């Protein structure tokens, strides 16, 4: 029975195959296919257009994601605000990635609260960093005549000895990352060559400060680097790269190539045809003194807590010194906070907030051999000895956390004291039209190529 079924299936299969061959023969040797109705070709859509549509439809923010321009007080600010932080806090982080992130938090806090100077001081309590950094071996690093493994084993590779090594000093590491964060993105390639300390700098959140200007922004002030080129004319000035596409800025004087400077550019000068614009070199404090625009911070290193005050860059030093400690004799929550200082002096020119490390300011003073006072008398160094977080819910407050708390709690006090300032017209405050749905910043993307 099974043999008969198999024979029938084979015969049926042979018959179908014969019919198929007959149809192919009748159609001229080609397999006949059903005709499809002609359809117009679909228009091709570029990938950039797809991304653009997706950005519009998905994740749209009704009131805009970020501000087009950083809010400006529109009044002169002649005073400065400094903070002092021990570099030893970096050595407590387990990996270089965490150390970089920690310093990035400090840089962000400083930018948000208009800090003009960051002092990285040695509290004599830190330990050396033990970074783990391995250079990646590339094919173009090898000797073209052969492999260089034997040279590495013999110790004859001179290139290996000339490579930059990661910093073991936590203070130098912190200072380098702080300077990198503050530098506008289009100037970083000029002032920060490749260094092991900057291995994870690309992961940092950008400051997005007013002096981090985009290429198409018509900003009145810009940071730039002096090039070796000069302008044309009777009294040519140096040409400065200010991050403007396809154009340099000719300043009013000749400066040494390679230095960083602040340039004032008239808004009407933008769009002028030619390879250069006209500008004027001004002080980095000019934007702040003119209308209160925040223009970044300076980074300074101090060898001890005493050097913070002795090496102050301002004439007369700091006239308002605030020390923060959980053992402070006054709290920000007290009703009488700040009244005693306000009665004695109605204004300050240069204020500084000093924060301690893991052990606090008292231990820093005890460890400083150049000081003739003990740690329990640390408050004598300051005009105010403040507890910024009374009844804290944790046994300890980390320095990066104390920085944000201190700046937030002390800000109303610092700006409530009358400050010597020039009278400026009050401009309109930001409205909803000043916000956009664009990306937060272009800093985290790859840098623009130089022309």
Task: Summarize it.
This is DUF171-domain-containing protein. With 451 residues, the protein is α/β, with parallel strands linked by helices.
Give the arrangement of secondary structure elements:
Elements: H1 2-26, H2 47-57, E1 66-67, E2 80-86, H3 96-112, E3 117-121, H4 149-154, H5 158-162, H6 170-182, H7 188-191, E4 221-230, E5 238-241, E6 248-250, E7 260-264, E8 276-278, E9 280-282, H8 286-291, E10 298-302, H9 305-310, E11 320-324, E12 330-331, H10 339-344, E13 350-354, H11 361-367, E14 384-387, H12 399-416, E15 435-436
Parallel strand pairs: 2-3, 2-13, 3-10, 6-8, 11-13, 11-14, 12-14
Antiparallel strand pairs: 1-15, 4-5, 4-7, 5-6, 7-9
Region (Disordered): 1-72, 136-168, 428-451
Biased composition (Basic and acidic residues): 1-36, 55-68, 136-162
Protein name: DUF171-domain-containing protein
